[in-house]
TrEMBL record:
<protein>
    <submittedName>
        <fullName>Thiamine pyrophosphate-dependent enzyme</fullName>
    </submittedName>
</protein>
<dbReference type="Pfam" id="PF02775">
    <property type="entry name" value="TPP_enzyme_C"/>
</dbReference>
<feature type="domain" description="Thiamine pyrophosphate enzyme TPP-binding">
    <location>
        <begin position="2"/>
        <end position="126"/>
    </location>
</feature>
<dbReference type="InterPro" id="IPR011766">
    <property type="entry name" value="TPP_enzyme_TPP-bd"/>
</dbReference>
<dbReference type="InterPro" id="IPR045229">
    <property type="entry name" value="TPP_enz"/>
</dbReference>
<comment type="similarity">
    <text>Belongs to the TPP enzyme family.</text>
</comment>
<dbReference type="InterPro" id="IPR029061">
    <property type="entry name" value="THDP-binding"/>
</dbReference>
Amino acid sequence: MSIGYSLGASLGAACAGARRPVAFVGDAAFREGPQVLSTLVQYKLPAVICVMNNGIMGIQQFMGHPQYYDNAQCQPDYYNTLMRWDYRALAQAFGARHARAKTLSELDEALRQAAELTASPILIDVVLDERDIPSVIRHTAGRAAPGAVQANSEAPLLRRIVP
Ligand SMILES: [Mg+2]
């Protein structure tokens, strides 16, 4: 899998129609294909797309400079920060339903609303703190960072392509 995979996969699963897809996608990954929402609306496919809106490419930040997550004085790398999109406006532009959740109870309510939609997708904006990162990332990506990231960085690749 790669970044943005879950959006396209949701469309495929929704077309297959066996079950209703529910995707939890990072805000960076969502930018790989937000037009999927338009296709879901066009074909009345009731996928639930939850955008984990924390305004950062968190995994990349963690792999490059994990100290950001443990030290409140650290700033994120500028290339990992994301502008927080107006997901309500984006959903409206595509004709999709929208909900916003800043708490677990609001997420419960948004998912309850989503369950009632049978012929329409919904985009749920799950608002998180910029330093929120799944614990599984801390345990898996942490073992690889930062040495593995540096070893596989762009510069050595470019040296191989352009001698
Ligand atoms: Mg993010």
